[in-house]
Amino acid sequence: MQYYSLNHNAPNVSFSEAVIKGLAPDRGLYFPEKITPLPPSFFDTIEDIDNVEIAYQAIKQFVGDEVPEVELRDILKDVLNFDFPVVDVENNIGTLELFHGPTMAFKDVGARFMARCLGYFNRNNEHQVTVLVATSGDTGGAVANGFLGVKGVDVVILYPKGKVSDIQEKQLTTLGQNITALEVDGVFDDCQDMVKTAFLDNAITDHKQLTSANSINVARWLPQLLYFIFAYKQVKYKKKDIIFSVPSGNFGNICAGVVAQKLGLPVKHFVASTNVNDTVVRYLKTSNYEPKPSKATISNAMDVGNPSNFIRIQKLFNNDFDGLKNAFSAFSFDDNQTKQAMKKVYSDAGYIADPHGAVGYLGLKEIELQDSDYGIFLETAHPVKFLDTVEETLAVKVEIPAQIQEILHKEKQSIPINSYEKLKEFLLK
Ligand SMILES: *Cc1c(COP(=O)(O)O)cnc(C)c1O
User: Fold this and answer.
1) Which residues have a Cβ under 8 Å from the Cβ of 16 and sit 6 or more positions away?
2) Is residue 205 within a helix (H) or strand (E), and if so which, with residue range?
3) Best probe residue, ligand 1, of 103, 248, 297 (max atoms within 8 Å of C-beta)
4) More confident residue, 122 or 15
5) 385 lines ligand 1 (CB under 6 A)
6) What is the set of active-site residues?
7) pTM above the 0.85 mark?
8) For position 378, which CATH number holds?
9) Does residue 32 form part of some domain?
């Protein structure tokens, strides 16, 4: 499989090159040259196929022959060793829980898949890389956990000071080894801009192979398409039309959902649910794409003013604005609405949603669900990751799971930086 740059000004590359480079030299995102639908029999019999086999069938065309079948199956088996349950919340609404992995947010699958692919590409120590990643909260923890101890890979995480939750901060600052956390005096967009600038800075790239572990990296982004297939496998017996509502920030997850649909997954409609960072919502109303600086919210993993992956979604719809609008809606909600939704879901269904899941729930509520529809909102993080907000809003005590308990007592280690120059200095030293 070859990947091309969506800026159309860089050579095509193989899967391994796309993973190692992250972003194309012309700053474009890599995009698969071709997406071949899976045979209808795959979806017809999906309830009988185990998750690793599903994953192998769905992912192999994107990897091509660069990871041999046996290794690819091993990687997938290792990456997918936890559950992805769909839980009924209301009559026609369920939630797909994506938080049963080691850092309790959905990014574990993509981060672990990417780490293991890089580990494989570097099996002969030929491809030493530095993973440079900006996080609005959860990416950092998932990447730190996924890449910890991976041979030939150094990880540098930039996160906005004071804008991630305590648990998120612990997850990305306490591991040590090949993981370094840089605490940036700024917002997420500043972190993301610094990362993008570093990729283009020859003074750095002449010395170091940099790559990204944000969802711009194809190995981080594509495995997320599996979630939508796993959800379908579980609810197919209901014989309903499925509408997915995806709490969205950089729009990587929902974009992977659209890829799953291209593979033949039956999906009636996608809803992108955002907090007040509403660039895509405004775009669908006005057809003007006007990014704005991000604003801090209680669903901080979605505080993104200029979502990187939206360009891939446009491409998946052949840049057809009307086609996109028919298949894809977007809604924005403020923190107050989010808290009201958390309360409603808890009082009506006894379900504790985190702020991101609650935004997803609100998005579904904007759609008039028919009796023949089943709406699924993605629960992208465990409520414990947003402990203060959840406990305060719902007046409940959330039990802290063992994998979080473990890190709470560890000491934070981070390096404060306040400019691009400081990042550069760090990378060159
Ligand atoms: C990263 C994240 C999101 C946003 O996902 P995107 O792929 O960037 O749209 C939503 N919820 C949580 C909890 C996250 O960590």
Assistant:
1) 66, 117, 121
2) helix 202-205
3) 248
4) 15
5) no
6) 107
7) yes
8) 3.40.50.1100
9) no
Closest atom, ligand 1, to C-alpha of 248: 9
In the predicted model, is pLDDT for residue 297 greater than 90? yes
Backbone angle region of 222, left / alpha / beta, with phi > 0 → left and psi within -120 to 50 → alpha: alpha
Domain ranges, residue 287: 83-105+220-399
In a domain, 215, yes or no: no
Confidence grade of residue 429 (pLDDT, cut at 50, 70, 90): confident
Q: Is 148 exposed, middle or buried (0-12, 13-18, 19+ CB in 10 A)?
A: middle
Atom index in ligand 1 nearest the CA of residue 356 equals 11
- Domain count for the chain, please give it: 1
> Ligand 1 atom closest to Cα of 256?
7
Ligand 1 binding pocket includes 381 (Cβ within 6 Å): yes
CA-wise closest residue to 240 among 375, 364, 42, 85: 375
DSSP 28: P
CB of 332 sitting under 6 A from ligand 1 = no
Residue 306 lies in a domain: yes
β-strands 210-212, 86-90 pairing: unpaired
Residue nearest to atom 8 of ligand 1 (CA): 250
